[in-house]
Every structure is written in structure tokens, then in C-alpha cells.
Amino acid sequence: MHRREVVEVEGRPMPVLVFDAPGAGPHPGLVIAQHLPNAHAGLEKDPFQLDVGERYARAGFTCVMPWVFHWWPAEAPMETKVDEFRDERTLADLRAAFDLLAASGGVDAKRIGIVGHCWGGRIAWLGAAGDLRYRACAVFYGGRIKAPFGDAPAPIEHASRIPCPVLGIFGNDDASPSPEDVDDYEAALGAAGVPCEFHRYDGAGHGFQDFNMPERYREAQSEDAWGKAIEFFGRQLRA
Fold first, then answer.
1. Stated pTM of the model
2. CA-to-CA distance for 119 and 104, rounded, in angstroms?
């Protein structure tokens, strides 16, 4: 189950979904960055994104999922949202989501991580690089980490700013990010001295965890990746 709240970002209302972990806290927390397919539909109309929040909550993590497309009217074309996407706005969104989570009486503010799939994987990397408070980061097949938006540098250029270990989950059949891109991600983190743990799956392409897209979904690889993610966040945020 989840509940809807609204926080203010630069004078604008931003909807968020909150997924509460069961039982008494304080629990570790997760900021969940959304992926691109629901840029039109909204957070509550995306079964995959809801499942992500519910799975982590059942595993004992209280989660906040910010609606980072609140800067545009819902009916704006996806191409417009992509073309006009700016990292500084997203960082403001993530700070607001983190602050909401940290202020919750049931969350330990010193044990918060960030995770995202696809577009959200890029956001997760960006968010970790832009906020020293994160204790863990997971990137699921995040593309465009090497691509800048607007005048800001590409997130990969800020690898040295990431304050926490990074989990990477990728499909070897993906084109964005390609295996070569993933090599570059791993090299950037290694050069920066950021601990990282990358897992690459044969027979899996982009979006292989999204059961909402049967042509992409790979159940065996997806469930294995889920186990690795839950274990990673448990290790990093419960220590």
C-alpha cells in the first residue's frame, strides 16, 4: 500500500508516493527515481513502478517516489519533457523527497539510499552525486549517464562526488546503456575510488525487470537482480 503526499519545490507542488515499511521503525529509507514510460501516465498508473515501491517496503525500507515530471503539464509531449529536462530541477526534486523521508519519524535519516530504473537509473546516479547524505545507490540499466542535459555536465563526470557504494544492474543485450557504456560507468567509479558492484545478465536487454512490457521482461534475470538489490541495500543501510 502507498499514500500520496505533496511537497513544494521552488514554489511548485510536487506529488510524491510514500510506501511505508511495516512494523515499528526507525527503518532505512529509499528515494525511488521514476522511469520514463510513466512520464504521461503518472506515478499511480504505472504497475511496475508501484511494484518497485511495494517490494522495497515489504523488505523493510520506507520509500518516497517523487513525480519529477511535475514541471510540465500532463498533456505535454514526452519529447518535450525529454528535451527540456534539466538536472538542476531534478536535484531540487530529489532534495525535497530526501527531506520528506528524513523528517519522517519512522525513518533513520542517516540510512537512506537511492534507486532507479532506466531514466530513473540516470537520476539515481545524478542524485547520489549531488547529495552527500546518501548511503547507497542502485542503478538499473540507466542510460544517458554519459549525456548532459542543458548546460550541466554529464552525470558520469561527477562520479567522484558519489559518497556511497553503487550497485549496477544491466542487460548484456541492451543498447542504452550498451555493454561498452557500462564499462565506462564502472571505469569512472573505479577511477574515483567509489566502491561498486556491477551485475550483467545475458539474454536480457533494456527494461528486463518491467513485467508491464512482456517483450522485454525476463523473469529469471529479474528475480535474481531483485535478490541482489535487496541484499545490497540491506548490507549498506542496516549496518
1. 0.96
2. 27
* Structure confidence at residue 39 (pLDDT): 60
Reading the block at residue 81, the C-alpha cell is 519533457
3-state per-residue secondary structure call for 15-36: EEEEECCCCCCCEEEEEEECCH
Best CA proximity match to 43, nearest among 21, 16, 20:
16
Each residue's pLDDT tens digit, 187-228 = 999 999 999 999 999 999 999 999 999 999 999 999 999 999
Structural domain 3-237, CATH architecture: 3-Layer(aba) Sandwich (3.40)
Cell, residue 222: 529479474
In sequence order, the β-bridge partners of residue 33 are 116
> How many residues make up the chain in this entry?
239
Query: What's the grid cell of residue 235?
Result: 548490507
Instruction: Identify whether the C-beta of residue 36 lies closer than 8 Å to the C-beta of residue 119.
Output: yes
Report d(CA 213, CA 217) in Å as an integer. Answer: 6
Contact 61, 30 (CB under 8 A): yes
